[in-house]
Specification:
two-stranded antiparallel ribbon; alpha/beta; 18 helices
Length: about 475
């Protein structure tokens, strides 16, 4: 008879099994368990009842460990996580052989989104302790992440108002059928979801009304800055409605499933989603992670610099010496940011106007604006001498009085700095830092779409994803050493 190991499926355990025998000691699951045990989880326990009443909660350490490990292996669906807590040995080890259901997992992620976001800073501190953070150079970049919505749910302001009115009429008709001439205390249960939709419609309507003026102000500020830089007035809005400087349409759409998300251009396509930002060191450690609804990266550069400085200061990291960013972050304000670090940003290509700081027209323009500022000439006279409109003259005068540096000189200074050997070498590191992180997040972790809704929720999830990226860097570092 062949020498074959016997299989006895009905054999009972003679001794209680030990989870420590289920996986090798260097497995990622044990690493997550050890990391979570070392974190400060007071933010998670603070919301639990202290009087001992009610049903028992799952240990918050176990719940956080399951969530972190799930994101490490690219699993974000609470239902699939529930199944893997039964089928997957590693998940069972992290959960201490407990099996919270999908509703419990989703509720934990929803109720503790602030505490989950705060874990990012603690893990960054672990990266610094491991010697993985060299903050001499930090690259900042953004990537577009799709929202958990359907593009068919985007509507205009008129459509929202129409649906609210139609929905109200439908509710009235249903109440008439249900109660007749009597008064009902509450709506029938079948209308519960419709009421929730009306709440989301009203929130979308509120955001359309709130964002409209700010969008126009942002457009106006960007247009004014461009005209001041070029030294002449841009084409009128009515003359060129297809121009990128055209006025924002009053019929802007908003998604009623997630009113916070926006239509953002991602390469050659448009996505309904968010602009996820990351600041990354040369060792591909994320030191700051933020989410914005702004389509332009340039408006969040200062915010990312502040977040990076604050995170490193709070975790004992070294200050940043150089910030690098691509053309999308170019603006005069960003290039002249008042910080204790160098800023390297590729200037946006000029489309017209004065491009050479040695151009005699710059000195001529400065001389005319100074005479205007002293009251020696009138605005119309200055416009005639400079061959521009009076509106452009007033913008140039405002820029002159603000004391801000000349845009052409700032641009030329940045070009010269990037042309140096040190500047070129520093900027060349950008692609191998932040682009690598985005590649890992999207390709390896499979994170291309948010599973939460709302700016606060997706910000928490983005920091969770970046936390997981940093945890995997620590784990690989320990395996290598």
């Amino acid at each position: 008879m062949p020498n074959v190991r016997r299989v006895e499926r009905d054999q009972l355990w003679l001794m209680p099994p030990s989870l420590s025998d289920w996986l090798p000691g260097d497995h990622l699951a044990w690493f997550i368990v050890d990391v979570v045990a070392a974190l400060d989880l007071s933010g998670f326990y603070r919301s639990l009842r202290a009087d001992g009443r009610g049903g028992a909660f799952y240990d918050q350490e176990v719940m956080l460990g399951v969530l972190l490990y799930a994101y490490c292996v690219g699993e974000r669906s609470s239902r699939r996580i529930e199944r893997r807590l039964v089928d997957d040995v590693a998940f069972r080890v992290v959960a201490a052989n407990q099996q919270p259901d999908h509703a419990t997992l989703a509720r934990f992620r929803r109720n503790h989104q602030g505490a989950i976001a705060d874990v990012f800073a603690q893990v960054l501190g672990l990266c610094i302790a491991e010697g993985l953070v060299e903050a001499g150079l930090v690259a900042i970049d953004g990537t577009k992440i799709e929202a958990d919505v359907s593009t068919g749910s985007s509507v205009t302001r008129r459509q929202i108002v129409t649906e609210i009115l139609e929905d109200a009429e439908a509710v009235d008709a249903a109440e008439d059928l249900e109660y007749g001439d009597r008064r009902g205390d509450e709506l029938p249960e079948r209308w519960a979801d419709r009421r929730d939709r009306r709440a989301r419609l009203r929130e979308a309507l509120r955001q359309l009304d709130a964002d409209g003026p700010s969008d126009r102000e942002s457009y106006r500020a960007a247009r004014d800055a461009k005209e001041a830089e070029l030294g002449h007035k841009l084409p009128g809005r009515r003359a060129d409605p297809n121009s990128k400087w055209a006025s924002p349409a009053r019929t802007r759409k908003i998604n009623v499933t997630d009113p916070d998300c926006r239509v953002i251009k991602d390469g050659r396509r448009y996505v309904q989603g968010y602009n996820a930002q990351a600041a990354v060191t040369t060792d591909q450690i994320v030191v700051a992670a933020e989410v914005t609804t702004a389509a332009r990266d340039s408006v969040v550069f200062a915010r990312m610099v502040d977040a990076t400085d604050n995170n490193l200061a709070a975790t004992g990291g070294e200050p940043v010496a150089i910030y690098v960013a691509d053309t999308g972050y170019w603006s005069i304000d960003n290039a002249t940011l008042d910080i204790d670090a160098d800023v390297l940003i590729t200037p946006m290509p000029m489309t017209g106007g004065i491009t050479d700081p040695r151009d005699p027209r710059i000195a001529r323009r400065r001389e005319v604006i100074e005479r205007l500022d002293r009251g020696e000439i009138h605005v119309k006279t200055a416009a005639t001498e400079l061959e521009v409109s009076t509106t452009t003259v007033r913008k140039l005068l405002t820029h002159h009085r603000s004391g801000r540096p000349d845009p052409v000189q700032v641009r030329q200074a940045m070009v010269e700095q990037l042309a140096t050997e040190a500047g070129a070498a520093a900027y060349a590191k950008r692609k191998t830092t932040v682009e690598t992180v985005f590649g890992n997040v999207k390709a390896n972790l499979g994170f291309r779409r948010f599973s939460r809704r709302g700016l606060t929720a997706v910000s928490s999830e983005w920091r969770l994803v970046c936390t997981v990226h940093n945890l995997l860097k620590i784990h690989r570092h320990r395996l290598a050493t």
